[in-house]
Amino acid sequence: MTSQLAPEPAKARRTPTRPGDRVFFGISFGAALVILLTLAGVAIFLTAEGIPGVTASADEVKSGLSFPAYVGPLIYGTLLAAVIALVLAVPVAIGVALFISHFSPRRLSAVFGYVIDLLAAVPSVVYGAWGIIFLAPTIVPFYRWLFENLGFIPLFAGPPSATGSTILTAGIVLAIMVLPIVTAICREIFLQTPRLHQEAALALGATRWEMVRMAVFPYARSGIVSASMLGLGRALGETMAVAMVLSPALVVTPNLISSTNPNTIASNIALSFPEASGLTVNALIASGLVLFVITFAVNFAARAIVDRRKDFSGAN
């Protein structure tokens, strides 16, 4: 009885690599490597130049404060202005994006989309000039009303600023700056909701709002979070608009409408750097390192939230 030899396993076919593919891979890999090296270079520079400012004593810097006492109010002001911007911008951005994607006529939605994209391209100095010339004087009566009617709340304890240059005004300007970014991302996420999900909800008798609530929002939840985090990153690092609008001081206060306002890290660096020297420069660079860490942590958190729902989310 002859024994049959077992057939040899088929060799896996290898896709031939063309020269163009190798060139494209090299360019892509090089671009990614440049980004990582640039990020690492910035981190190394900020760390090396910032450590002397962190270890400097209070009498060696212009502020006359130790670094924790100096940077603490700046962190508070940075986070406060960014949170105000998000609280004001995100609900409006979601509503505008939802109107463009699901409720407005097609021609009108295209016009709104172009306007939103153009708003994202406006330089921050233009928003700052609008905020200090128009918004700040116009909003003073509203601040007085808040003080007279809601002054028992620490946020509006007053006395109200006579010029309107407050942390709340800066937050409103930041909200307007963040609005186009969050709106554009949310609009694209809403448009990616599977058509079958929406049609199934409508076929079961849901109204259009119920369809949005049951089909669109669950699908786009992590996308909304990532859009909000990107907007938060923009608000955290904004410099000129805040520097032009705000009348800052190194304080920690919940009062949003008084003339004594906390400053932000980016604005403080822009205003203080031209006149700084010696270890004061290192202290400013160290505060920039703190802002770098905060921004990195925000982006890392956003990426982690998106990855949790990447299998059924429109964020990727």
Automatic annotation (TrEMBL):
Pfam families: BPD_transp_1 (PF00528). Keywords: Cell membrane, Membrane, Phosphate transport, Transmembrane, Transmembrane helix, Transport. One of its GO terms (molecular function) is phosphate transmembrane transporter activity. It is a multi-pass membrane protein. The chain crosses the membrane at residues 23-46, 74-100, 112-143, 163-186, 239-257, 277-302. Belongs to the binding-protein-dependent transport system permease family. CysTW subfamily. This is Phosphate transport system permease protein.
